[in-house]
Write a structure and sequence with these properties.
alpha/beta, D-Amino Acid Oxidase, Chain A, domain 2, 9-stranded mixed β-sheet, 6-stranded mixed β-sheet, globular
């Protein structure tokens, strides 16, 4: 079939990869001049297969009021006269219960473990694509005894779901990650223990996408860059064409992988995709002259909701620092207050990891719109339109879930049963 992929982020490119391998004639449409220049560009870099619990959980609601009153809170809300925003918030609040959180976590773990197995196969099959991939594990650090005790109590449950994790005391955390022994590290001083997951990984999503683009072109995939998509043309229960500023594009099948913009594009077709953007921020720090004072494994500061991922790039070693979530519409403009906040978090946590004198503007500041659903599950597979499939709504897990989601969607198009329960991610799934 002729298949048009709408979007050249990691979701769209991985979809193109598996569909091309299945023998389809694939074209990727993208409004930007290159691939992965938006949400996939400088995300947190963690391939966090065991940490997929949704943002909507029973412990979130009590935290929201104080978060909304603090300018430095992990989550900030900017109310607007936007029906989609308020509808998403209502559904999010309704999803903040233990039963829904547990159900979503189990579903996401199935997809994330499948994605991990595909990543391992991909690295073996496509060794020419280098993207600072490392399987160094992840350490989630806690700053209060109550939070750490709660995490330890969950270990048996996590193991029953297939997660391999260990609880480490304060000294063991410092032994595992020597950067925490820096006397000037506030994170090292306040941490009381952590949960170590040896199977977690890191990788530069942008470099992955650029390498994958080259591989796709060699496989015969066509790219229509600088092609802004205006609307989908529906006709008789099918999509007849995609209208772009460069003219109509026709195909036998279409895959919608436009992240936070997927909901807007599908709305004229009568489809309501419950996706709203959560704006996140990142910095990429060049590691200083003393590498031991920068994390060598992936770190998550549980209290501050900030992640630190070491990346070995061609130009040297870097530390990707990412965090925060702003419910603030579709603007990709960087908020200097939030950027400075992330900069200060990094400077306090790992003060000797880099030279902070030049300020955040010297550290590749970035913001991206995470396409989140209220319950936290992506939208994958079929729609009421026979030739339109979805691969969107991954929230902060787009990089982690990319390969599993793409393979599952490709299998649906191929007419075979995916290796994950695709019904759990269907558009009409309401539980």
């Amino acid at each position: 079939m002729r298949i048009a992929i709408l979007g050249a982020g990691v979701a769209g490119l991985t979809s193109a990869y598996y569909l091309a391998r299945d023998g389809h004639q694939v074209t990727v449409l993208e409004k930007s001049s290159g691939v992965a220049l938006h949400t996939s560009y400088a995300n947190g870099a963690q391939l966090s297969y065991s940490y997929v619990a949704p943002l909507a959980g029973p412990g979130v609601l009590p935290k929201i009021p104080p978060w909304l009153l603090r300018r430095d809170s992990p989550l900030r809300f900017y109310p607007a006269l936007d029906l989609q925003q308020w509808r998403w918030l209502l559904e999010f609040v309704l999803a903040c219960n233990q039963a829904q959180s547990d159900l979503t976590t189990r579903r996401l773990l199935e997809l994330s473990f499948y994605s991990r197995s595909l990543m391992h196969a991909f690295v073996g099959e496509e060794p020419q694509i280098e993207f600072a991939y490392a399987r160094g594990g992840k350490l989630v650090l806690f700053s209060d005894a109550a939070g750490f005790d709660s995490a330890r109590r969950l270990l048996d449950y996590q193991r029953s779901l297939g997660c391999e994790q260990d609880a480490l005391d304060r000294a063991q955390c410092m032994e595992l990650e020597p950067a925490l022994t820096d006397p000037a590290s506030s994170l090292g001083r306040r941490q009381v223990g952590g949960i170590h997951t040896p199977s977690e990984e890191v990788g530069d999503c942008y470099r992955f996408c650029v390498g994958l683009e080259q591989r796709l072109r060699a496989m015969g995939v066509a790219f229509a860059l600088d092609t802004e998509i205006l609307r989908l043309v529906g006709q008789g229960g099918r999509v007849a064409a995609v209208e772009t500023r460069s003219g109509p594009v026709e195909a036998d099948h279409y895959v919608l992988a436009l992240g936070a913009y997927s909901a807007h594009l599908s709305r004229p077709l009568g489809l309501r995709l419950p996706i709203y953007p959560l704006k996140g921020y990142s910095l990429t720090l060049p590691v200083g002259r003393t590498p031991a004072l920068s994390p060598r494994i992936s770190i998550t500061d549980f209290k501050r909701k900030v992640v630190y991922a070491p990346l070995a790039e061609p130009g040297g070693d870097f530390l990707r620092v990412a965090g925060m979530a702003d419910i603030a519409g579709h603007s990709e403009k960087i908020d200097p207050v939030r950027l400075h906040q992330l900069f200060e978090e990094s400077r306090l946590a790992f003060p000797n990891a880099t030279d902070y004198a030049a300020g955040p503007q010297s550290m590749q500041p970035w913001t991206g719109l995470r396409p989140a659903t209220p319950k936290g599950t992506p939208l994958l597979g079929s729609t009421p339109y026979a030739n339109l499939s979805l691969n969107c709504g991954h929230g902060a897990l787009g990089w982690t879930l990319a390969l599993g989601s793409a393979r599952a969607v490709a299998d649906v198009i191929k007419g075979v049963e995916p290796q994950v329960h695709i019904a759990n991610f269907a558009l009409k799934k309401r539980d």
